Amino acid sequence: MTDPTTSCLFCRIMRHEIPSRRVYEDEHVYAFEDIDPKAPTHVLVIPKRHFADLKEAEAGDAELIGRCHLVAAKIARERKIENGYRTVLNVGPGAGQSVFHLHVHLLGGRHLSWPPG
Ligand code: AMP
Ligand code: ZN
Questions:
Q1: Cα of 44 to ligand 1 centre, how many Å?
Q2: Which atom of ligand 1 lies nearest, measured to the CA of 99?
């Protein structure tokens, strides 16, 4: 079976095969600026271990997914957007997912309407 990480866009970004504007990195998590920002702050936070989406996640992935959200909260704090920001996981093409490596969108710095489209 072919290794999904070989061609995965976000795995390639993590390996620095494709450039990105890094915001944060630790042993488990990588965060970078979205190339097509939908808000003044639009950062993507990804686990360093590849899995396609939330549907693939298992109980053992809970800590890693939690870490991604905590990194988003840390970035939001640093950027002083804590009055209101949003963390979003698009799950599946029907919800707009276009890159199949789980990622948390951190959006903020403007008013965010509800419900989302
Ligand atoms: P989604 O549609 O939820 O799968 O989100 C994928 C996100 O990745 C979109 O917001 C894209 O703008 C973003 N994106 C695609 N290619 C790149 C790239 N090379 N560097 C940074 N962000 C990217
Ligand atoms: Zn990947």
A1: 8
A2: 4
Pick the CATH number of 4-108 from 3.40.50.720, 3.30.428.10, 2.60.40.10, 3.30.70.20: 3.30.428.10
Q: Kindly tell me if the per-residue pLDDT of 1 is higher than 80.
A: no
Q: Give the whole-angstrom CA distance, residue 70 versus residue 95.
A: 23
Taking the CA of residue 32 as reference, the ligand 1 atom at the shortest distance is: 21
For residue 45, the 8-state DSSP code is E
CA of residue 22 to ligand 1 center, whole Å: 14
- The pLDDT tens digits of the residues spanning 43-60 come to 999 999 999 999 999 999
Strands (E) across 1-117 are located at 22-25, 29-33, 41-47, 85-88, 104-108
Sign, Cα dihedral of 58, 117, 84, 19: positive
Mark whether 69 is an active-site residue. Answer: no
